[in-house]
# Entry
Amino acid sequence: MFERPDTGSRALLVSLGSSERDYEESLAELRELASSACLEVAGIVGGGRNRIDPSTYAGSGKVAEIAALRSELDASVVIFNNELSPAQERNLERALECRVVDRTTLILDIFAQRARSHEGKLQVELAQLDHLATRLVRGWTHLERQKGGIGLRGPGETQLETDRRLLGKRVKVLKEKLQKVERQRATQRRSRARGAALSVSLVGYTNAGKSTLFNALTHAGTYAADQLFATLDTTSRRMFSPAGRNIVLSDTVGFIRDLPHELVAAFRATLTETAQADLLLHVVDFASSDRDRQIREVNRVLAEIGADAVPQILVCNKIDRVSIEPKVVRDDLGDLTSVSLSALTGAGVDLLRSTLDDFFDRAERDPASMPDEGGDMQLNGMPMAPATAVVDADTWTGGPGGARSG
# Structure
């Protein structure tokens, strides 16, 4: 009988890719994910992979290399920077004699560790169960035994069928609870609308500095750290613009490349707040050389949750790391392009506050600048870049310094 090994704290990372640039950036992100999951990275196995082995993903030669290094480093878990099928995970665990997880499972584990609110825990559990539903046939031979059970299962029902039935019941309960949460959120949105409060949501790639900016704007004192997915639970606080506008600012979960579909689906109730906002502040780590791809990834997820029609202001954060002065960037017509600031030092935060007034002043004078339902997103009368757009500092004639950081 094949029993799954326990997971320890020493991890061997396996990253097999085809693009050299994407490979380096993806591997660096995997290291951060492992660190965020409180794992010690014992070593890394890399290399190119032009053809996926249907049995083990990596192929027999690479699996033998991984097994030898795992034994030498005494790693207790092997993490693949690729999505593995249930059969591939099972075959790899047999060959490597240790626990094997893929990137999706690792992200789900981090979310499970970080969820604090009742709603967040429900959403993460639902995502985990949706992911587990495809992985019940893993190699535990007891799942194949037919066995009756008084009050639990009928004659001839296998353990696997029982597990599926119990899992399905739990998923149904979780979805009902989350529907109740969504009704509560809808009531809160109606209350804000009656109180004439404007809704602004912070969105962006994970670790772009959203929570630090949220604290700088609202003095909320919420948790912020230099790690991936430091904040999962949506937090909303009231703030007032320099002109005295009543604004409800929300800090949302960060996005990441290849964000598991199960998480997007489970967090849909929370992400609905983003789709219902009057304005999105898209926070970008301007010190990251990978910022263009991160912007595209965030816009892709926004489109998936129906928030791609909400007006955006690009907030170029962490300028203290690249020696750029804070400024509001406008085009030749005076229309707003972006705001550069440092949420950590506070430089440029007041410029962002004033920018919010500028945006809503224009929206009040020219309602056509705001998106119609299902219409194209516009900002100050200027069509915004589509979800596939690339923001490249080298081509910004009026951008903050026009300089890239390495």
Observations:
- Residues 138-156, 371-406 have pLDDT under 50 and may be disordered.
- The CA atoms of residues 17 and 49 lie 6 Å apart.
- DSSP finds eleven helices and 13 strands in the chain.
- The longest helix spans residues 159-194.
